[in-house]
């Protein structure tokens, strides 16, 4: 879809298209209301700023659609397709990396009671593991802020993919 097509969608059609990017009504409403966009960059800027920062409740809602890093998303939803594409860059994880990621995911989930979320696109497994280890030292409030920023980055990348 190109930018002109996106700009010409009805409000309901645009909302439906955006929901798999980030299932947060405030974000969706902000991006839809900011149309028409003159450039893809202006759409992405809107995508980054429309709900930044996310509330705790918005983060919780949006997190329900994200699999563990290193695990294949289940189902055939648009969210699962986005996730599979985003994690494809990790390639086949070797045993040691897979084991470290599984252990890190488990420790993170025990500490923060949610899956570890990071924008996987453009990152290699070692960088992701380094970020997981670094973020384990965060307070709950710091980590929620980081999760919210990661959700916004993922949403913006997904929006870019739609408009490419």
Features:
164 residues; mainly alpha; UraD-like; 9 helices; elongated; 2-oxo-4-hydroxy-4-carboxy-5-ureidoimidazoline decarboxylase; 2-oxo-4-hydroxy-4-carboxy-5-ureidoimidazoline decarboxylase activity; decarboxylase; EC 4.1.1.97
3D architecture notes:
- The protein has helices at 3-8, 11-18, 25-33, 40-49, 56-63, 78-88, 95-112, 125-135, 140-163.
- With 164 residues, the protein is mostly helical.
- It has a single domain (3-163), classed as Oxo-4-hydroxy-4-carboxy-5-ureidoimidazoline decarboxylase (UraD-like).
- Helix 2 (11-18) packs across helix 3 (25-33) and helix 4 runs antiparallel to helix 9 (140-163).
- The longest helix is centred in the last third of the chain and has 24 residues, at 140-163.
- The chain is elongated, with a radius of gyration of 16 Å.
- The relative contact order is 0.16.
What's the layout of helices and strands?
Elements: H1 3-8, H2 11-18, H3 25-33, H4 40-49, H5 56-63, H6 78-88, H7 95-112, H8 125-135, H9 140-163
Helix pairs in contact: 2-3, 3-4, 4-9, 5-9, 7-8
Report how far apart the termini are: 7 Å
What is the structural class? mainly alpha
CATH topology: UraD-like
Assembly level: single chain
Largest sheet: none
State the order of secondary-structure elements, H for helix, E for strand. Answer: HHHHHHHHH
Annotated CATH homologous superfamily: Oxo-4-hydroxy-4-carboxy-5-ureidoimidazoline decarboxylase
What is the number of strand segments? 0
The helix count comes to: 9
Q: How much of the residues is beta strand, in percent?
A: under 5%
Q: Using the coordinates above, name the CATH class.
A: Mainly Alpha
Number of domains: 1
Mean pLDDT: 90
Q: pLDDT below 50 for ≥5 consecutive residues: which ranges?
A: none
- Helix proportion: 55-70%
Shape: elongated
Catalytic activity: 5-hydroxy-2-oxo-4-ureido-2,5-dihydro-1H-imidazole-5-carboxylate + H(+) = (S)-allantoin + CO2
InterPro entries: OHCU_decarboxylase (IPR018020), OHCU_decarboxylase-2 (IPR017595), OHCU_decarboxylase_sf (IPR036778)
GO biological process, one term: purine nucleobase metabolic process
Pathway: Purine metabolism; urate degradation; (S)-allantoin from urate: step 3/3
